[in-house]
Predict the structure.
Amino acid sequence: MKGYGRRRFVNMAMTAFCGAAVLIALVPLVSVFWLLLAKGFAGLSWSLFTSLPTPVGEPGGGVGNAILGTLFLVGLACVFGLPIGIGTGLFLAERGNGPIGDAVRFVTEVLSGVPSIVIGVVAYGLVVVPMHRFSALAGAVALALLMIPTLARATEEMVRLVPSHLREAALALGVPQWKTSLRVVLRTALSGIVTAILLSVSRAAGETAPLLFTSLNNQYWNFRPDQPTASLTVQIFNYAISPYEDWIQKAWASALVLLLFVSLMNLTSRFLARSRLRGA
Amino acid sequence: MLPEAKIAIPRGEARRLRALRRVNVGDSSYNALLWFFGGSVLVVAGVIVFGLWGTASPAFRATSVLSFITSTNWDPVQESFGALPFIYGTLVTSAIALLLAVPIGVGFAVFLVEMAPSPIRPIVSFPLELLAAIPSVVYGLWGLFVMVPWLRSSVEPLLGSTLGFLPLFRGPPLGLGYLAGGLILVVMILPTIASISIEVLRTVPSSLREAALALGATRWEAIRVASLPYSRTGILGAALLGLGRALGETMAVTMVIGNSPEIHASLFAAGYSLPAVIANEFAEATSTVHTGVLAALALILFGITLLLNSVARLLVRAVTKGYAKAST
Amino acid sequence: MKKKIVMLCIALGGAALAADSLLINGAGATFPAPIYSKWFSEYNKLHPDLKFNYQPIGSGGGIKQITEGTVDFGASDAPMTEEELSKAPGVVHIPTVMGAVVIIHNVAGLTELKLSPETLSAIYLGKIAKWNDPALTKENPGAKLPDQAISVAHRSDGSGTTNIFTDYLAKVSPEWEKGVGAGKSVKWPVGIGGKGNEGVTGVVKQTPGAIGYVELAYANQNKLAPALMKNKSGVYVAPNIKSTSAAAVGVTIPDDYRVFVTNSPTKDAYPIAGFTWLLVHKDQKDAAKGKALIQFLWWAQHAGQQFAAPLDYAPLPEPVVKKVETTLKTLTVQGKPVNVAGS
């Protein structure tokens, strides 16, 4: 039948189109990874991780302070973001079934879509201006604001997934409600929450816009939360738009380092998720 | 509810009852802690909105909202601020991004859910997660040194010579510009659209698909007739979420859009976007009006993404939870 | 085990906080960033306990941050306006070096470009759109000017370099003065924006057919040949230390040092040159930081000037240095004068 041949053709064409969509989606991924490896690998060296930047235009030096700065900023952000994020998630899971719970859930979901540059503006007004200085604290606050919504949602999901008979068994044995929630339910949901933490950390480590006018930048090693701090992302940005070959080379190498860190976080969280599903 | 009976309780008994209540200090403080956290999120949201409003208020006093949105004159020297070039740039790049990312993203999802043999599925979904995890500045770096030269030397001359009669494709091929901004956004919102479409397509009850196949449909026809109409709302939600992400994307776009606060019809021209101008000018806006204007732009951005995300999530949730419940 | 980790963290934290090095934060112009970063690096070698953290975010940023008090010192090649000064009472300008704003290009095969006030302003007004425009070919006989569109590059951030550049254009082109004006951030008729001097250099380097204005050090560090500019006396001058210094000849330096030296009538002067300043509070609030800053400024005026020439910045003329010395001696720390030559 003529009609059937045409229909089969359309079927094949659409299958090809969808397959092509997959390939098209993979092209930039492969390209990014390939280029980072090719261009960035050459720049990887011990001094990249341990040295400070050299004066403008002088080759050499490294981004050691930026790598440390990112770890410092993310660590500080976790101090604020983890309690509030996980706490909110717990609230939504345990007390979130009423209208207030719905409101909080809605606000959390909506907050997760706020552009990071807007969060940067807010953190500037909230922390930088009253403190009269750019600081790692301001950057950490901005990153924490970005981490909280995803952590809250993930925690709520994970806690709700814990089978109710576990909670009921603990309560039946006379364990107080708060202990049940924390030591039984939360502990069971822990690996899922750790997955969410890893993903939030990976996202926070990759943010640039909110750090531009909160933690600014710093050419030295910095351990103080009330001073500006270098960060890997801001450094990559500054180097990438500069004309110096040496700096562009460092941008590629730093981007490779950042990408490896982010990929590692993602792989670890996937591994944890899988081992949890296997009933570990 | 029974009326409280006033019973006389012996003193020892009363003391024991009070002691029991005290054990619940742990519970009541835990409860208070939970409500504290729940409220803190609302407080955070309120602080964000009021903080932005406060920083932006000098701008509202200096110029009317309508003229702010419609004027193209961005002149910090004369303190005349028109936001139209940035709104235009944001809209154009987002439109390009949606136009390309939705077909590719949905195609990806359809392939994964309906067409791919199951051993391939995890291999294909993992790259999607990785794409989503790549930081914006790394995309910007890649865009600046790979995509922009490619556009400048191959794509834009080709488009200019074949479709140059359209005002969209006229002008010198710079590489940087609206097209570059739009294309980099395609790469960045693709994972969002694809992964939500996958989620949505997975909720299609197999009975629908099987019914179509039983009636003699080809696999594509079954998808077209059964799966896609069913998940239409959810895919719309995915597209809106992708749009929300595209509107707020800062670093990658700043690095390839050309940073020129003007409106041009051609996609090859340099432009500007709302997040890009905030990133570039915020640290140095000296007058309170200039700072206020940038904060007002941030507020506009916040409002639009808020609206989009709310609508989008409602749509997606309606499909994944509502329908799923109805079909079981 | 947990206890040991906590003790270790407290110890490290305490050590970090108690570290005896002083961190002084500054932000501002990208114009002098090469020489400033060199200065801070050299000064740190002399005084390992003093760290100057300078962030080049543009002159506009430098002025804003010193006004808001978020940095200890600012840097700008655009002198603060009366309005800006009224919001930042007590801030003084201390000149450090002179630099030249040069025109760089990315045209294959073009080794030397000559520009005049007329052609330069026409290019930036968008009136000359191609490299082989008759006005350009007339001015550059023998040069290989292709039939290529000119991609104009300018600053996307608030820039003192832009301030010097547009001040010059406003002086030499009535059309520019009326239509665009001068300032740190103007409404550019055409062009692509780059962030900082390094951003503009980057745009020009990567875009064939591009033209841009940057500080001389950036052109030299990236091996981009600057154009020869026709100055007020009609001579085509190459930007270098000699022609930059010549721009300050015959100019009266006011007490607050806020002065433009563009379009100088001196015969061998480069027409687009300018001073760059560090913005500091006349009375420093922090004792340790204030003393360190003022002593650094003294060092910059004397020993620091030797680093200017290798980076193609013109050292300050002697009379200016003498004047700055007297100004530095009037700076105070918490109301008390300081031993300026302490370093």
Notes: The CA atoms of residues 90 and 282 of chain C lie 5 Å apart.
